């Protein structure tokens, strides 16, 4: 027997009231609405929003967040560079390049600069990890002093390490109030130790040297005194850089 739907209410009410008392018909009608037409609405639960993506916990931490970076270097190259371990064990041939330039005022200044170069070589050659250390010949110094060109120049003399440094006078002043014809110079020197095979910088160093110098009677003028003070400060600063390279190599050797 088919159960009447809620749309048959008028027909059911008319037939029932002709055969049963009104009170009973009302009860049946209420029961019919409750059981026959009533239905339970079951709303589907809304899924919770996805948790915000954590940069530290996502795969994007292995990729650049800036699309323009790909035009310079790919994410794969960055990952390979960061995952490469550089071993400095063994003996190495070191090429040296000075990025600065010097203007000699006299033969004495030229001798000071030559002595600075000798002191630099002597400091580097104290390292047992270096089989040889030599200045990169000027004929091989590239016009564009970028890392790829510098690597090529060092490779041509079979140097697997390249020591590049630059020294400049940061501050300079003359004090003629307390002492006449005295110069105070400060030299700031920086260096990079480059692994020629991979192009990776294995160490950097920075040195600061202050010097005060009095004008000598042999100086042609005070400008020569200034130049001599700068050369002396530069020589001491680059020796500090050389000692930093020796210390870096000794840590690997141990």
List keywords for this structure.
Double Stranded RNA Binding Domain, disordered N terminus, 254 residues, alpha/beta, 5-stranded mixed beta sheet, single chain
Give a verbal description of the structure.
The protein has 254 residues and is α/β, with parallel strands linked by helices. It has a domain at 92-253: Double Stranded RNA Binding Domain (2-Layer Sandwich). The chain is 37% helix and 22% strand. It has a five-stranded mixed sheet, with helices on both faces. The chain starts with 8 loop residues before the first helix and ends with a helix.
Helix content: 25-40%
CATH superfamily of the domain at 92-253: Lipoprotein like domain
Identify the overall geometry. elongated
**Content of β-strand:** 15-25%
Sequence of secondary-structure elements: HHHEHEHEEEH
Secondary structure layout plus pairing:
Layout: H1 9-19, H2 22-37, H3 75-82, E1 92-98, H4 107-124, E2 130-135, H5 147-156, E3 161-175, E4 182-195, E5 201-214, H6 222-253
Parallel strand pairs: 1-2, 1-3
Antiparallel strand pairs: 3-4, 4-5
Helix pairs in contact: 4-6
Outline:
The chain has 254 residues and is an alpha/beta fold.
């Amino acid at each position: 027997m088919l159960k009447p739907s809620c749309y048959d209410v008028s027909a059911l009410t008319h037939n029932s009231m002709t055969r049963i008392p009104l009170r009973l018909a009302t009860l049946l009608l209420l029961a019919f609405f409750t059981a026959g037409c009533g239905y339970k609405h079951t709303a589907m639960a809304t899924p919770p929003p996805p948790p915000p993506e954590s940069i530290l916990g996502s795969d994007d931490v292995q990729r650049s967040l800036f699309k323009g970076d790909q035009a310079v270097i790919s994410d794969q190259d960055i990952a390979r560079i960061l995952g490469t371990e550089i071993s400095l064990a063994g003996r190495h041939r070191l090429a040296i390049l000075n990025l600065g330039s010097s203007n000699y005022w006299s033969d004495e200044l030229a001798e000071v600069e030559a002595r600075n170069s000798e002191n630099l070589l002597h400091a580097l050659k104290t390292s047992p990890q270096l089989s040889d250390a030599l200045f990169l010949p000027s004929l091989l110094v590239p016009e564009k002093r970028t890392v790829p060109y510098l690597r090529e120049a060092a490779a041509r003399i079979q140097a697997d390490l390249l020591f590049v440094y630059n020294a400049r006078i940061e501050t300079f002043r003359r004090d003629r109030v307390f002492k006449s014809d005295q110069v105070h110079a400060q030299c700031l020197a920086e260096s990079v130790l480059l692994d020629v095979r991979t192009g990776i910088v294995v160490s950097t160093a920075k040195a600061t040297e202050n010097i005060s110098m009095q004008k000598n009677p042999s100086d042609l003028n005070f400008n020569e005194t200034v130049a001599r003070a700068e050369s002396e400060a530069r020589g001491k600063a680059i020796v500090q850089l050389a000692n930093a390279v020796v210390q870096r190599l000794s840590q690997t050797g141990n």
